[in-house]
Amino acid sequence: MPIDILMPALSPTMEEGALAKWHVKVGDKVRSGDVIAEIETDKATMEVEAVDEGVVAEILVAEGTEGVKVNSPIARLTGEDETAAPAPAPAKAEKAEPPPVSAKPAPAQPAPAPAKVEAPAMPEGDRVLASPLARRIAEEKGVDLSAVKGSGPHGRIIEADVEAAKPGAATAAKAAPAAAMAAPASAPAPAPKPAAPAAPAGAGPTLEQMGIPPGSYDLTPLDGIRKVVARRLTDSFRDVPHFPLNMDLEIDRLLDARVRINAALEGDGVKVSVNDLVIKAAAAALMKVPQANASFTPQGIAVHHHADISMAVAIEGGLITPIIRQAELKGLKEIARETKDLAERARTRKLKPEEFMGGTFSISNLGMFGIRSFSSIINQPQGAILSVGVGEKRPVVRGEALAIATVMTVTLTCDHRVVDGAVGAQWLAAFKTFVEDPVTLIV
């Protein structure tokens, strides 16, 4: 009996996704737990494992298809004792009958289009099982995956296998005959470069309407992440009544404390960053001013029991906000380990949905890029987001004298429905105390 494989919901809010890649083809046998496809969600590319066993009878959605609705069929399995649906055979040539005699000559028929030359299909034994990260690294290093022995489940090639392999000419050697077989007898004339697709309604005028001709720019299509980020940030900026609060912090004592903390952790292989200290200070301030650790809902204002801090991480194609859960209960050593692990897996799109969904407060740090001050867009349904700038030497006034201090500017963007000006100012005052006197974080 055929079994439909459905588009999975990889997060509670996922409504559709892109089928980025198939790891199986018609006729392949799959077992429960085998990776069969990669699905691109609004935040990451996730591997999809087979739940049922059988033979792939049909691929219903081609790889690269966007906007695939959750729970819609994407492939079909049959039992191992059933036969997969074969490709339709070409119609058997029959003896041509003479055309009927007509007083009028038959109209000229167009010449048949030349047959499309297909590349030879890869035999079953040549299919390479490899993780998306392994494939990406192999492409960068020029490693032929067919020559790599996998050490993962079912012989699957993983990152370590590719890192241990040496790049060679095998890939180029295999590609040459394949390209020669696929090449047409005569090269066709190059097709004209297509014009840019029309902008969606409400997106403003197209480049052509602005007088920029096609062919004068390169157009990169929006992937799933960019589309969702664009939609969510537009909704947030338009629908949330927001305002910024700025404050300068002197961080010399924080920097001194970081040096001493890292000296104490030297043998543990852990290094605490300024951002780790900022996360800890933000969590402590949220516990001191719980009204800032809140979300607006249609039912009322939800004040959260724990400080689940979302940290913005830039990834290819957008950004993602992995979460340090219950940061107020964790020490700096644990926070440092967790932030490093989450950031690395975010960049390779290996986060689970629960690791980047459900935070109560966000932090975006652009200080490492030399940005002094900026204001971030609120990450709904959170009530506030903190933007952290660079720490730099600036003149400060102490009493009646000028002095030099390391100063960092932070901006708290607040959802006015949840965090009004007074609450935002109270939270910044508490945060300033924890940052400027780090001893208060442990008392």
Q: What do these coordinates show?
A:
There is one protein chain. By secondary structure, the chain is of the alpha+beta class. The protein has 2 domains: 3-84 and 127-175, RNA polymerase II/Efflux pump adaptor protein, barrel-sandwich hybrid domain (OB fold (Dihydrolipoamide Acetyltransferase, E2P), Beta Barrel); 242-442, Chloramphenicol Acetyltransferase, CATH 3.30.559. The protein is built from 8 helices and 18 strands. The strands form 5 sheets. A 6-stranded mixed sheet has the order 9-18-17-16-12-15. A 4-stranded antiparallel sheet has the order 1-8-6-3, with no helix packed on it. The chain is globular and about 85 Å long. 27% of the residues are buried.
Search tags:
8 helices; alpha+beta; OB fold (Dihydrolipoamide Acetyltransferase, E2P); globular; six-stranded mixed sheet; 2 domains; Chloramphenicol Acetyltransferase; 443 residues; four-stranded antiparallel sheet
